[in-house]
């Protein structure tokens, strides 16, 4: 059985849906049934931007299970269900609750099902459908940029591409012409044009010159609906700049430049390398197209000037390469050419990209200092030349034909060895010279213009002192040697050399010989080696220290210069005992000292240094010992007990005549007050409490009398040192009344004594007060 039904959607069209039911049979004759579907559909359509007052109707859902009794409930789920889209649960009508914008969302996917209202049992399976939003032309085209910036070379041909603009329409490009955009130009004609379909902007006019107009503003319109009436449109501005090309040659503003054309007059005293003028050619182009090179193509002073280009200002700077002299040439003429660096072959037809001009340079006269004929002077003089001898002359001329005077810069001649004639420049010496003291003298001569003392020039003068043979040769060293007692005849014992402060041109040549006064009785001989040295030889087979221990050999040394100079030098030879090989074994003290290389003065100096060091060490040790020794009482504030030991030696155990030690332990013997020993009492002495001594045996009376006598002596002499000191008297012997001094065994009168007063003596006697100051019952226990 076939049943056809539809669901009406007023915004689109009628949709035809097919429901099939078959009533065939299987092989057993049982009727077959196909599973049924309540409905089938694919999509609904809805217009965007609905402006009606009622809810916009979308469509209707209906199930064949719906008998119209209200038992069927339609349920809608998915995108926008319940908010954008609502369904009537009973009738299945779907409505849109809000205005929809296709540009925000083009379609919605929803799900629908039919359930039993009372049991909530699904009557139909869930089905999916789509609601598509139909587009309307509600969006105008929008350009991707606003404004656009573009550049195009000047003098471009017609049709040269400049820039492409793009406009985007948010409407549906697949539905109608809402998104079909057409471009047109509103402003910028007749210079530019635009392609209506691609938006490509091109040049429309030939020969656009940047130097005439550089910037252009072009307005482009984009309109949808293919440009038809009623379409929406948008505009943008395109700022187009013509870029520069080298289409203009450089040109000088004048064909000839002089000082009247702002080219300054050049003084003749200007320094080399200085700028003497600046020239500039004009070029309408900019950037690298306006870069120029200047060069001199002609001049009446070859090599006098050169021209360089200042790249930052494109100016030609004329520099001086040779000195100017107003007296020789007062004006120069230069032919200068300027040319572009970067030339575009496309514009060769506009003529040569270069220009030429003539430059006149005027030289100005200035007052110049005198000029010496030479940059420096070298003069020679013999060292034996007398005073006021002229050794040479200098000469300076003034370019302005003025008179000059000469002086010597005394800062270069502090000893005033030289002088100069102020008029003719003759240099002469003021005192005798010594080549050995100073072979060269460097002085400076000053030439001063007579009418203008500020105009001066300086020149160095080097004076060389020539040598004359005025110094005799001498031994090269202070030679000393020894000869063995067993020496053989003609044995070389020493080779000597000579020195001479003179410096002959051909070098030194010395001659050695034995002095004539020693030639007849000489024990040694001198042999000239012909190489500026001489050998000292023995003349006999043996020498004896007993006969003579020291020999002095006079040697005459002469040079070969004129006049000949000679001197007699003495060689000291000491006789020493040697072994068979000639090694020295024993020699006198002077020889040994000489061979050791230490003189008597050196030994004395070393000995003095050792003595001084020892004295310093002893002094340092004494100072350290003195620092370590401290006084007995450091200050008056020190309250420590000081015990002075006198190291007295008693009589020993056999001394039985000592005092009774028991009496010393009687506390009653302690004085209540003591007189200060460091202050002399004034008129009288206060009474002193005497200790009450307990009764003792008669054989201790001598001790008691001795103590009383000593106590009386001390009380009557308040200034006797040491002040505030303690005198101790000790006694020990057979048959002592005190017997043992131990506090544990002493039983003399301890039980009769009262030690409570110890607690009144302060914290220093607290320990004794605790030991002896208790009750009798405590001590007994």
Automatic annotation (TrEMBL):
Mark the transmembrane ranges: 602-623
Lineage per the UniProt record: Eukaryota, Metazoa, Chordata, Craniata, Vertebrata
Q: Which residues form the Cadherin domain?
A: 63-143, 144-252, 258-372, 373-475, 475-592
What are the subcellular locations of this protein?
Cell membrane
A Pfam family assignment: CADH_Y-type_LIR
**PROSITE patterns to which the protein is assigned, alphabetical:** CADHERIN_1, CADHERIN_2
Q: What domain of life does the UniProt record list for this protein's source? A: Eukaryota
The record gives the membrane topology as: Single-pass type I membrane protein
**InterPro entries, sorted:** Cadherin, Cadherin-like_dom, Cadherin-like_sf, Cadherin_CS, Cadherin_Y-type_LIR, Catenin-bd_sf
Entry's Gene Ontology BP terms? adherens junction organization; calcium-dependent cell-cell adhesion via plasma membrane cell adhesion molecules; cell migration; cell morphogenesis; cell-cell adhesion mediated by cadherin; cell-cell junction assembly; homophilic cell adhesion via plasma membrane adhesion molecules; morphogenesis of an epithelium
This chain belongs to the protein called Cadherin-10
Function, please?
Cadherins are calcium-dependent cell adhesion proteins. They preferentially interact with themselves in a homophilic manner in connecting cells; cadherins may thus contribute to the sorting of heterogeneous cell types.
From the UniProt record, list the coiled-coil ranges.
Answer: none
Which GO terms fall under molecular function for this chain's record? beta-catenin binding; cadherin binding; calcium ion binding
| Species in which this protein is naturally found | Oreochromis aureus (Israeli tilapia)
Q: Which GO terms describe its cellular component?
A: adherens junction; catenin complex
What are the entry keywords? Calcium, Cell adhesion, Cell membrane, Cleavage on pair of basic residues, Glycoprotein, Membrane, Metal-binding, Repeat, Signal, Transmembrane, Transmembrane helix
């Amino acid at each position: 059985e076939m049943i056809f039904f539809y669901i009406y959607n007023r915004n689109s069209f009628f949709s035809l849906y097919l429901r099939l039911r078959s009533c065939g049979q299987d092989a057993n004759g049982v009727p077959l049934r196909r599973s049924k579907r309540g409905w089938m559909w694919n999509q609904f359509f809805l217009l965007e931007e609905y402006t009606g007052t009622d809810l916009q109707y979308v469509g209707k859902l209906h199930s064949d299970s719906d008998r119209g009794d209200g038992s069927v409930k339609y349920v809608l789920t998915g995108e926008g269900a319940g908010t954008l889209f609502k369904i009537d649960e009973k009738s299945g009508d779907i409505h849109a609750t809000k205005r929809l914008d296709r540009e925000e969302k083009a379609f919605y996917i929803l799900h629908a099902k039919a359930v039993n209202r009372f049991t909530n049992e699904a009557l139909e399976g869930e089905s999916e459908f789509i609601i598509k939003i139909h587009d309307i032309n509600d969006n105008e085209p929008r350009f991707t940029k606003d404004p656009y910036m573009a550049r195009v070379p000047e003098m471009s041909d017609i049709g040269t591409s400049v820039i492409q603009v793009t406009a985007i329409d948010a409407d549906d490009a697949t539905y109608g012409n809402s998104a079909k955009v057409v471009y047109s130009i509103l402003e910028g004609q007749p210079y530019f044009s635009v392609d209506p379909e691609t938006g490509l902007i091109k040049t429309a006019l030939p020969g656009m010159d940047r130097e005439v107009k550089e910037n252009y503003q072009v307005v482009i319109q984009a309109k949808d609906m293919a440009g038809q009436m009623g379409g929406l449109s948008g505009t943008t501005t395109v700022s187009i700049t013509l870029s520069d090309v080298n289409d203009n040659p450089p040109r000088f503003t004048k064909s000839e430049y002089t000082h009247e054309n702002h080219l300054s007059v050049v003084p003749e005293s200007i320094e080399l390398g200085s700028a003497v003028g600046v020239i500039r050619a004009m070029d309408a182009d900019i950037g690298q197209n306006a870069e120029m090179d200047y060069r001199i193509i002609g001049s009446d002073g070859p090599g006098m000037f050169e021209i360089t280009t200042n790249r930052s200002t494109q100016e030609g700077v004329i520099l001086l390469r040779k000195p100017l002299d107003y007296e020789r040439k007062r004006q120069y003429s230069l032919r200068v050419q300027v040319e572009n660096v970067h030339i575009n072959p496309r514009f060769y037809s506009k003529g040569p990209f270069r220009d030429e001009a003539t430059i006149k340079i005027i030289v100005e006269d200035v007052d110049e200092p005198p000029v010496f004929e030479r940059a420096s002077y070298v003069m020679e003089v013999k060292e034996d030349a007398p005073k006021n001898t002229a050794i040479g002359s200098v000469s300076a001329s003034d370019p302005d034909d003025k008179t000059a005077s000469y002086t010597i810069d005394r800062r270069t001649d502090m000893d005033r060895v030289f002088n100069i004639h102020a008029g003719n420049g003759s240099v002469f010496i003021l005192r005798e010279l010594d080549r050995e003291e100073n072979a060269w003298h460097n002085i400076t001569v000053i030439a001063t213009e007579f009418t203008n003392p500020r105009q001066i020039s300086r020149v160095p003068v080097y004076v060389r002192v020539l040598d004359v043979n005025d110094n005799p040769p001498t031994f090269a060293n202070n030679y000393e040697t020894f000869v063995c007692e067993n020496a053989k005849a003609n044995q070389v014992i020493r080779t000597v050399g000579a020195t001479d402060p003179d410096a002959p041109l051909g070098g030194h040549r010395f001659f050695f010989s034995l002095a004539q006064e020693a030639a007849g009785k000489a024990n040694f001989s001198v042999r000239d080696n012909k190489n500026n040295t001489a050998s000292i030889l023995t003349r006999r087979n043996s020498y004896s220290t007993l006969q003579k221990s020291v020999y002095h050999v006079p040697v005459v040394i002469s040079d070969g210069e004129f006049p000949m100079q000679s001197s007699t030098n003495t060689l000291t030879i000491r006789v020493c005992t040697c072994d068979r090989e000639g090694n020295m074994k024993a020699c006198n003290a002077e020889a040994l000292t000489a061979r050791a290389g230490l003189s008597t003065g050196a030994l004395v100096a070393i000995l003095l240094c050792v003595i001084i060091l020892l004295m310093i060490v002893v002094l340092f040790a004494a100072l350290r010992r003195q620092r370590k020794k401290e006084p007995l009482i450091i200050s008056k504030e020190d309250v420590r007990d000081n015990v002075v030991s006198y190291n007295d030696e008693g009589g020993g155990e056999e001394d039985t005549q000592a005092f009774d030690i028991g009496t010393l332990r009687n506390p009653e013997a302690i004085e209540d007050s003591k007189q200060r020993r460091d202050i002399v009492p004034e008129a009288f002495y206060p009474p002193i409490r005497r200790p009450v001594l307990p009764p003792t045996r008669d054989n201790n009376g001598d001790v008691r009398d001795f103590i009383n006598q000593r106590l009386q002596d001390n009380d009557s002499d308040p200034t006797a040192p040491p002040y505030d000191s303690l005198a101790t008297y000790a006694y020990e012997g057979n048959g002592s009344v005190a017997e043992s001094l131990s506090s544990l065994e002493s039983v003399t009168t301890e039980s009769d004594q009262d030690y409570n007063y110890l607690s009144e003596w302060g914290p220093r006697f607290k320990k004794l007060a605790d030991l002896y100051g208790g009750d009798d019952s405590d001590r007994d226990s």
